[in-house]
Amino acid sequence: MKPVKDAHMLAEHFSAYTQWRGDVATGIEELRKWLHLNEIGDAQSDLRLQYLLDRLREDKLIVAFVAEFSRGKSELINAVFFAGYGNRILPSSAGRTTMCPTELQWKAGDKPEIRLLPIESRKTNASITELKRYPEEWQIRPLDTSSAESLQQALAQVGETRLVSRAEADQLGFPVDENGDTGLRPDAAGEIEIPRWRHAIIQFPHPLLEQGLVILDTPGLNAIGAEPELTLNLLPNAHAVLFILAADTGVTQSDLAVWREHVNAGRRQRGRLVALNKIDGLWDGLRSEADIEREISGQVSSVADTLDIDPSQVYPVSAQKGLVAKVNNDEDLLARSRIVELEEALSTELLPTKRDIVRDNTYGDVNDIVNRSRELLNARLTGLREQLQELTDLRGKNQNVIEYMMRKVRSEKDEFEQGLQKYYAVRSVFSNLSNNLFGHLGLDALRDETRRTREAMLDAAFSRGLREAMKGFFEHLRGNLRKSTDEVGEISKMLDAMYKRFTVEHGLKLAAPSAFSTLRYEKEIERLEEAFNSQFNTVLTIVTTEKHTLTQKFFETVAVQARRTFEIANRDAEQWLRAVMAPLETQVREYQLQLKRRLESVKRIHQATDTLEDRVGELQQAEDLLVQQLRQLDALSVRIEHALDMPADSGTAAAVLAA
What we know:
By secondary structure, this protein is of the alpha/beta class. It has helices spanning 9-37, 43-57, 73-81, 128-131, 148-155, 166-171, 207-210, 221-226, 228-234, 253-263, 289-307, 319-328, 331-337, 339-393, 399-441, 443-459, 463-506, 519-535, 539-544, 547-607, 612-644, 653-658; strands spanning 61-66, 102-105, 113-118, 139-142, 161-164, 192-195, 197-203, 213-217, 240-246, 272-277, 314-316.
């Protein structure tokens, strides 16, 4: 038996990603400190850099494991993530071991514990996302991480159930079906077995979890259907979804329903992997390796055809043998389990995609701040050199020339102050347009529409009225986003004209204002509507669900997610509005300061000509300092670009220097 050499491939890839993220954060922190030390940055730039740092530190990578019952999902999680404990950590006995959505996570400052949300919380209007803010709503149980046995016993709680009447099952949102095909099946006494917990969060000090990995373990189809937030929020926000099938059952009807309604919903293109588990069932000792390989290949092709995906997305594995191989350091068995190929796929699907997203978002913000800082330094340098030239030209001149120079600077100052009146007028219009924007995009408008929709749903006498009220909710949101786009266009047009005016009339170095688009929020509302149509807007759901229950479900899931989208849109719009005004405000302030300094210099020389050489010397030193600061800023920019590993053809400062 050979020792396992490569059982930690995913951990190594993840560590490399974490190191990359740390290097980027270090570069941004250096830039932030340097801007503050040299009094170049402004409050808005500092806030944006702090936001970037917070986003990098809190960056999460969510991998969701989705399967029907008895497909070996928990065993696969054990094999991929917890083999280092020398035993199973998540319970993986036959039958239903995960009865509620379960998140495994860890961050600095956490305590090892399990947070369990009672199933009765479904009777409220609160979503899981909202309830996460209130610890008192959860039952908290400490975790003993000193032994695998203690962990097993504690984690088994996520599989706890209780029996309820059919009426209570309906009230809690669980579908009931006498045959068990489309809902939970009553027992002989007519009682329904339901999960004891609605959601579980396991805080567990595991090396991968410490680095920001979050594992989302989901229950089977009927339990998923009872928690729409899984479909509307948790699964769509996962960076990779691993769908597990069993080789001994193939793709059953319930497997296909989970795939179509939950994994493949929303036309997710990347990060979907399928694990065909339990291939060790083919190792019966009677078939040759060639026969086994043919059987596996045939099953992979059949699964790919049924799910309408490429066969390369299907990974045949034996989670149980992979776990045994890792625990016993058996490389031959590990290779036969094929678990390493799945880990490699998780690494290549999950990490590069996430890294690209983080890199692009980070570079866009950093590059904008660096460019603004460079424009400011260049404006200072240009003004200083003009002032230096003026003073140098005064050498040997008489008092009349100096008086003329003073009048000239005063005239420029007066002319600029007249231009400021236009600037203040633009500020007033900008403020009005910003208010209009938030009138459409703001949370007050969303609250009004939410209240109107709730009233319309409760007042609806027939199912048609219910559907029209819910449909009208989405139409209103899309209309508000379209109006917001129009307001953004007006703001951009006005600022572009103002930027050009100040560039031409006063020589300020101003690039065109950055663009802002509501497309991502429109896409999110579209995705939400698609999920809503499959979850709520069906004849069966509307006919079989009591009006008040349907209204409650709609508002604790769909409306909550819509609010989250608009909250993000509000935050992004506020940041954009500050960002587009900041360059103009900074340049105006800087130009005023330069004019004031020029006037003071000429005044001092007018009063005492012997100060001319001293002032020229001071300005030459200031010029050297500004040139040095520009070099330092370029070096910091290149340092961050190297840390981000920007492509060589991206047109960055690093690429230009390399050329």
